[in-house]
Structure formats: structure tokens, C-alpha cells
Specification:
Layout lengths: L9 E5 H7 L1 E6 L2 E8 L2 E6 L13 E5 L2 E5 L6 E3 L4 E8 L6 E9 L5 E5 L2 E5 L13 H17 L2 H10 L4 H6 L4
Antiparallel strand pairs: 1-11, 2-3, 3-4, 5-6, 6-7, 7-8, 8-9, 10-11
Bound molecules: FE2/S2 (inorganic) cluster.
The site of FE2/S2 (inorganic) cluster (FES) has 8 residues, from loops.
């Protein structure tokens, strides 16, 4: 049996193609996954930002708090490429004197396993637990992404409330998010 035929391992392209393109979006079992090649490493994560479903495909990549992160083009949330961890900066008042530092929100964006086998890339989807980025996947996710986009465009109060309350962000975490 070839690798392509195994149930949980999906051929998603040649490594050399991703090295050239740097990014590509593949759909596996109805899930849209962003593949990234950056500084010699391959990464795979859910394509749509856990916050409000914007595609991360054009997000900048920066090293923040010693972690490579993709920055969502919409509201600039920072997501670590390896673990899908949400990072934000805020003032830590427990320090003397208080100063701004990085905090972690824990895993928010689902990351997947990408294996390089004889020049080909194979994806194994992660399905462990429930993560916020799951919300924007599949047919229902498409509807929710469009809803979030409309709310953003119109600035409708209802849309904003829905977006913030859907996420498990604490008021504090959301309110204190600062640009690096
Ligand atoms: S949609 Fe990504 S930060 Fe808001």
C-alpha cells in the first residue's frame, strides 16, 4: 500500500514546490489547512484565524518571545507556528516596576503534523480536543466566516458582540492586547 492510500496520512504536495511557493492552502477531509515553509522548516495549521476566521495565508511571520509566530492580517493576533498558541503583550502589574511582557493564551489554533518522506509532504490531521480555530472550518465554518466578515464590514454592534463572546478570550486578555 502506498503512503497516499493510508487513512490518516494525506499526500499534500512535493516539498520542493512548497519551498518555492513558501505557502499553500490544501483541503483535507473538508478542512482547510495552511502549509508554510519558513527558515528551512515546514508547518501546517488551520487556515482561518481562531479569533474571527480571517485567512492567515498572507500573515507576516516574526519571532516573538523566542517563538516563530504568524500575525493575522486582520486584527494582528499572534499565533505560534509550532503549537498554535495565542500570544499577546500586556502590562504585568505584579512586577516592580510594572512592565509590558508577553503572555500566553494557550493553544488556540489547531496545528497538524507535516512529514517529509522522500521529497513528498504528508499531512496527518490533528483532532485532539476542541480548539477555537475548529469553529471556522467546514461548511458551517464558511457561514460563520462570512458572518464575521459582514459584521466587520458594517461594524454592526451585534456582530462585534458575537465575535468576542464566541471566543473564550478573557475581557482582560482581549482588552490588553498590545502591538509589539
Ligand atoms: S481575525 Fe485574526 S486577529 Fe481577528
Amino acid at each position: 500500500m502506498s503512503l497516499e492510500e493510508t487513512d490518516d496520512l494525506h499526500f499534500v504536495g512535493k516539498a520542493e514546490d512548497l519551498v518555492l511557493s513558501k505557502r499553500s492552502v490544501v483541503t483535507v477531509e473538508g478542512r482547510d489547512v495552511l502549509l508554510i515553509h519558513h527558515q528551512g522548516e515546514f508547518y501546517a495549521l488551520d487556515c482561518y484565524c481562531y479569533h474571527a476566521g480571517t485567512s492567515l495565508e498572507t500573515g507576516d511571520i516574526e519571532e516573538l518571545n523566542s517563538k516563530l509566530c504568524i500575525i493575522c492580517p486582520k486584527h494582528k493576533y499572534k499565533i505560534s507556528l509550532s503549537e498554535g498558541e495565542g500570544l499577546y503583550r500586556a502590562r504585568d502589574t505584579s512586577l516592580t516596576p510594572p512592565r509590558v511582557r508577553w503572555f500566553s493564551k494557550g493553544p488556540k489554533q489547531r496545528v497538524h503534523q507535516l512529514s517529509l518522506i522522500q521529497g513528498a509532504l504528508y499531512l496527518r490531521l490533528s483532532s485532539r480536543g476542541r480548539l477555537e480555530s475548529d469553529y471556522y472550518q467546514g461548511e458551517r465554518g464558511k457561514v460563520e466566516r462570512e458572518k464575521a466578515e459582514r459584521a466587520e464590514d458594517t461594524g454592526a454592534e451585534e456582530g462585534r458582540g458575537w465575535s468576542w463572546s464566541r471566543s473564550n478570550e478573557t475581557e482582560e486578555g482581549a482588552g490588553l492586547e498590545l502591538e509589539p
